Fold this protein.
Amino acid sequence: MRIKSVVIGGFVVLLGPALAGCSDSSEVVLHKPGVYKGAVDPLVEKQRSSEQQERLVARFNQIQTDR
């Protein structure tokens, strides 16, 4: 009898979080694609420089030469 109640108790403990994971969240935020609305990103300005683009291309070519 004791084992049966422990198994049932364990099942109930595991069932609660499992069912909670199936619930829908009403906090979904839809954004327009291609529009960044977060905090200011310092990499955006850095990406515009030709020097940074050259470094990225060189880095990419170092890695991709074996493929």
